[in-house]
Amino acid sequence: MHIESDSELAPGLPEKDTPGWQYAVFSGVLGWVLDAFDFFVLVFLFDELSAKFHVDKSAIVWSLTLTLAMRPIGALFFGLLADRFGRKKPLIACVLYFSTVTVLSGFAPNYLFFLAMRALYGIGMGGYWGIGASYAMESAPRRLRGMLSGLMQGGYSAGYLCAAIGMQTVAPRFGWRAMFFIGALVAVLIVLVTLKAPESESWKLHRNPSLKTMFATMLRYKGIFGYMLLLMSVITCFSHGTQDLYPDFLKTLPWVAHATVIGMKAGLGIPVLYNIGAIAGSLCFGSLSEKIGRRYAVIAALLLCVCVMPAWAFGGTLLAVVAGSCIMQFGVQGAFGVIPAHLNELAPSAIRGLFPGFVYQLGVLISASTPGVESLIERHVGYPWALTSFVSCVIVALLLIFWFGPEKRGHDFRLADAPSTPVATKG
């Protein structure tokens, strides 16, 4: 199994850090934190919004599905803008757009208006990752790309944590509507930082002159598009399969209702802890991927998840469940932490703003039925075996995908793509 490096592809190209690259990475990461915060705020407000709009709680839950369904549209729209006009301006436009829609959600006078705002928010949420990840990865020094990839993806868990903390600090003092407003202050900060950041040098070198050539490029690389779509569909099943129903699983454990963790009820404290573990895993395996390769780092994270699965699903004590869930999310998001770098290195240079983000969001859409599938299995075999059987199948699929899949670790984004194939390596 041979892995080519950029020294083999183009010897003699020294790395030179882009002045101000830190601003570009900061804006990309912070924007993804804000995007996740604005999304996860909703999961803490089901009861309040149900009472406010006089609808069943299921109607509020359905708005989450609508948000997710709109994400590929946003990835396509803002990705095209990013490849046509550069990373900076579309990133600023996307942040201002989804922050404005989030604020309007807080002012919603009725359920239909609220539903429309959450659908529009989904466009911004889907659009941001592609721009932010490509901007951060293209601007980051190659020697730090793996670690910063983990930092970028860890922003999703950080946004969830911030939403949980905000519900315990901001909401009790200023009311639940304030949760839809406070992110606007962060959006202003992101805009100011992005204005100071340099434009992507890779985009300047490989920019496409028209929409026609962008779509032609995507068609030319349909093989790697199919591979990346398969990868993202399965790995998002992995993430959702270990996260979405786990809080509900915790409620079924008889001792959870009376236990406390870090001063909180166990049902809330355990998710806080395993989200901290998720952030640590993203950084750890993202950094590790710079040394052993993207694929091997993901495989290591997956094997860690296999080892801890008994404690995660069958742990009979508080200590076992806390340790199992934290280590599980350390591995799950450790695998995901490699994704921003891995997808951007595989993507065609001329449409890097569009390609990874569109694939990512299509994968999210395809995997959206994961909670429903697990719930169906749970009715027949119970939660522990439902979670274990589903996640085990997904891990086996991911091991095969990454073992036999391509890798371009350390790819120099200044280089032109090979004319025949975008894949520099194969397993």
Description of the structure:
The protein is mainly alpha-helical and 427 residues long. The chain has 19 helices and two strands. Helix 4 (57-85) packs antiparallel against helix 17 and helix 7 crosses helix 15 (318-337). A hairpin with a 2-residue loop joins strand 1 (260-261) and strand 2 (264-265). The chain has one domain (19-404): Growth Hormone, Chain: A, CATH 1.20.1250.20. The protein is globular and about 60 Å long. 51% of the residues are buried. It has helices spanning 6-9, 21-40, 46-53, 57-85, 88-106, 111-139, 145-174, 183-196, 201-206, 211-220, 222-243, 246-251, 266-292, 294-314, 318-337, 339-346, 355-366, 370-381, 383-404, and strands at 260-261, 264-265. A two-stranded antiparallel sheet has the order 1-2.
What's the short story on this structure?
The chain is an all-alpha fold and 427 residues long.
Topology:
Layout (H helix, E strand, L loop, with lengths): L5 H4 L11 H20 L5 H8 L3 H29 L2 H19 L4 H29 L5 H30 L8 H14 L4 H6 L4 H10 L1 H22 L2 H6 L8 E2 L2 E2 H27 L1 H21 L3 H20 L1 H8 L8 H12 L3 H12 L1 H22 L23
Antiparallel strand pairs: 1-2
Helix pairs in contact: 2-5, 2-6, 2-7, 2-8, 3-4, 4-5, 4-6, 4-17, 5-6, 5-8, 6-17, 7-13, 7-15, 11-15, 11-17, 11-19, 13-14, 13-15, 14-15, 14-19, 18-19
